[in-house]
From TrEMBL:
InterPro entries referenced in this protein's UniProt entry, alphabetically: PLipase_C/P1_nuclease_dom_sf, S1/P1nuclease
Protein name: S1/P1 nuclease
SUPFAM superfamilies: Phospholipase C/P1 nuclease
Protease among keywords: no
Keywords: Disulfide bond, Endonuclease, Glycoprotein, Hydrolase, Metal-binding, Nuclease
Hydrolase as UniProt keyword: yes
Gene source species: Lutimonas vermicola
CDD domains, per database record: S1-P1_nuclease
Gene3D superfamilies: P1 Nuclease (1.10.575.10)
Domain of life: Bacteria
């Protein structure tokens, strides 16, 4: 009887952790972004990045920001994965997170990579982190509301399984689509040179406001405890795919600016 009780306690904890955990974009999303970015790198930038990463591609290092969460030594970077400020307020006027946010984090990574005095070790670390954070920035709920933790506290059912709105946009829709990151990267929309240049225009802050604008729509897309299924993917997965593609294209632009 004691063994049965222990089994159900472990099962409950396991299920709770599965629901509570919410990796940004999930591994598949982040790797898709890295793979897309590779296609838009200049030859000069690609060569320097390959040297720094010792031959590793952007897809393989794209999950670095989540991987290091398992190490307490990197707890100080936790708040770099998102930014929360009121929808009716400008970022510059908002109260800032003392430990930093995603806008500050991306800016810091870029500064280190441009710093000729920065160590090789720091350049590698912050390059990996930059790849990850540029992905996070394009997940709308990473620019969501603080009061619901970017949708993490909005519980929903995803195909009859417990989830939350943040997780649905991070990984549930992507995993349900059942394509590998390389397949998703290959099957992006065909864009003209002018369209690509248009996507790459603007600053990190402009892209932050763009994600926040999408976050407003995401919040209106579902109610607490709602049962989300095929129709939800039909209505919203194209936004996910578009954000993955934009993120990869913009990541390449940022890296080209740094290394060209």
């Amino acid at each position: 009887m004691k063994q049965i009780t222990i089994f159900f306690v472990i099962l409950f904890i396991s299920q709770y952790n599965t629901v509570a955990a919410s990796p940004e974009w999930g591994a598949t999303g982040h790797r898709t972004i890295g793979e897309i970015a590779e296609k838009h790198l200049s030859k000069k930038a690609k060569k320097q990045i390959e040297t720094l990463l010792q031959g590793q591609g952007l897809a393989i290092v794209s999950t670095f920001g989540d991987d290091i969460k398992s190490d307490d030594a990197y707890d100080k970077f936790y708040t770099w994965h998102f930014v929360n400020f009121p929808f009716d307020q400008k970022y510059k006027d908002s109260e800032k997170e003392k430990r930093g946010d995603i806008v500050m984090g991306i800016t810091y990574c870029i500064d280190i990579l441009k710093d000729t005095n920065a160590s090789q070790e720091d350049k590698i670390f912050y390059l990996k982190f930059l790849v990850h954070l540029m992905g996070d920035l394009h997940q709308p709920l990473h620019v969501g509301r603080a009061e619901d933790k970017g949708g993490n506290d909005i519980k929903v059912l995803w195909h009859y399984k417990k989830s939350n709105l943040h997780r649905v946009w991070d990984s549930d829709m992507i995993e349900f689509y059942n394509m590998s990151y390389s397949e998703l990267a290959r099957n992006t929309s065909d864009l003209s040179k002018a369209q690509i240049q248009s996507i790459q225009q603007g600053s990190v802050l402009d892209w932050t406001y763009e994600s926040q604008s999408l976050a407003k729509k995401v919040y209106n897309s579902a109610q607490p405890d709602e049962k989300l299924s095929y129709r939800y993917s039909y209505d919203h997965f194209q936004i996910v795919r578009s954000q993955l593609q934009k993120s990869g294209i913009r990541l390449a632009k940022v890296l080209n600016d740094i290394f060209d």
